[in-house]
Amino acid sequence: MKCWRLWLIRNDKENEEATIMMADLAFRKNDYESAMFHFQQLLQNKPDYWVALARLVEVMRRTGHLEDVPEYLKKSDDYVGTRASLVPGLNFCKGLYEWYSGNPNNALKMFNKARRDNEWGQRSIYNMIEICINPDNQMLGGEVFETVDSDVHAESRDSQEMALRTADKLLKELKPKPGVQQMSYELLQGMLQLATKNKSNVERALADFLQICSRDTQRENVGGILGIATAYMLLKQTPRARNQLKRVAKYNWNFEDAEYLERCWLLLADIYIQGGKYDMASELLRKVLQQNKSSTKAYEYMGFIMEKESSFKDAATHYEAAWRYSNKANPAVGYKLGFNYMKARRYADAIDVCHAVLEKFPNYPKIKKDILDKSRASLRS
């Protein structure tokens, strides 16, 4: 009987490992539905399987189902009971969900709880640095939304500088191993220099990224290419940036380079939009959305293109998605959505969005005069 029980335990563990392998394989092959099914099966039997939960959050983000994640987080919470707030793996998964849902401050708190852990600590610190470098999900180097973004975040310059100082401190905490971790570390160092937008820092980062991509094994390093292109954009050398980004425009999506690939495609789309090449930009944006249905920036750019073409109804549809996936936390997106509702004569919807923006951002410029008052007047007439 004892031997039978031991065989069952071992077999169960092997089944778990086989299932996670199948799920990972499906995920890497872009078969998100299969991956989601396997991860859900694993969590049904074992709600404290944090590797599976973290992967499920990622899959649900890419399939546009982030709103389903809290159900799984709650099941895991209930399963571990009173220890929930002390479990690093669970806190890491909560941090991922908050980050992807447009709540950077909550994400930082959750990752911070996991940052001292042997298994989840390094990944938590990497994510915290990414958030500190770009808490508001701006397109660093992009010019399409540059004026709007700077208006929205003008009041938070001090907090931006503090966030970058925090990122610098966290970088010093990292102990990267040679290989992939060391490369991620070097790329983050460069991205932090770029985020300061200080000319000498940007030039130093550019030299570092060029040096990375000059190594025989790193000539096609997507993060390095993004760093070079972003530096050129910040230095107002758009043709050079475009030439770098065109190298990765035809790359196939892969799990390892996913984040940097998407940002390359978005930055190249930004350049094409600036040049009025809307078809080429749209092709890249569709490529991003094919791999990440929660990409708020891709929806925002698509909305911008439709608005420029006076297709206000279609623009509103894309801005709706950007507003939803940013957790209704970006007032600039809310403004654009309200404006396009108004232009599409959806006055009641425009008024609702204005109220939602003003409730969270009472001093947000122009929305009352430009959209709320005009929509109310149009409804009465």
Quick structural gist:
With 381 residues, the chain is an all-alpha fold.
List descriptors:
disordered N terminus; 381 residues; 0% strand; mainly alpha; 20 helices
Protein architecture, described:
- Helix content is 73%, strand content 0%.
- With 381 residues, it is mainly alpha-helical.
- The longest helix is centred in the N-terminal third of the chain and has 27 residues, at 2-28.
- The relative contact order is 0.06.
Instruction: Determine Rg (CA atoms, Å).
Output: 22 Å
On the 0 to 100 scale, the average pLDDT is: 90
Straight-line distance between termini:
83 Å
Beta-strand portion reads: under 5%
SSE order and pairing:
Blueprint lengths: L1 H27 L3 H14 L4 H13 L6 H12 L7 H13 L3 H11 L6 H13 L12 H7 L4 H17 L6 H16 L3 H16 L7 H13 L3 H9 L11 H17 L3 H14 L4 H13 L3 H14 L5 H13 L3 H14 L6 H14 L1
Helix pairs in contact: 1-2, 2-3, 3-5, 4-5, 5-6, 5-7, 6-7, 7-9, 7-10, 9-10, 10-11, 10-12, 11-12, 12-13, 12-14, 13-14, 14-15, 14-16, 15-16, 16-17, 17-18, 18-19, 18-20, 19-20
